[in-house]
Amino acid sequence: MDIDFNKKASSEALSDSKKPMDLILVRAIMSCTTCGKEKKFRNQFLRKDLELMVVALKVFDWMVCNKCGELFRLDLEFRV
Ligand SMILES: [Zn+2]
Questions:
Q1: pTM (predicted TM-score)
Q2: What does the pLDDT read at residue 70?
Q3: Which of 2, 5, 32, 39 is in Cβ range 3.0-4.6 Å of 65 for a Cys bridge?
């Protein structure tokens, strides 16, 4: 089942996108399970732009600890 994303987004942009409640706060916490090093990132996305969040999170896929080379664990917190 395909959804025409562009058409949906443009029709919703006029009515919904200005509401602050459409904003989702995302906090990504990277932590090294070996040495305990932590990095935190924060970003916010419009609900209709959640695809952008997925793209942004891809960056974290390959992140490794610069202290011990271990792959970071990724925890996400959402606040709507
Ligand atoms: Zn480490």
A1: 0.64
A2: 93
A3: 32
CA 28 to chain centre: 7
Chain-centroid distance, C-alpha 78: 9
Question: What is the CA(65)–ligand 1 centre distance, in A?
Answer: 5
What residue type is assigned to position 20 of the chain?
P
CA distance 23 to 39: 23
Query: Residue 72 burial by CB count (10 A; 0-12/13-18/19+): exposed, middle or buried?
Result: buried
* Ligand 1 centre distance from Cα of residue 67 (Å): 5
* Rounded Cα distance, 24 and 67, in Å: 32
Q: Parallel, antiparallel, or unpaired for β 73-79 and 38-46?
A: unpaired
Instruction: Give 22-34 as a DSSP string.
Output: GEEEEEEEEE-TT
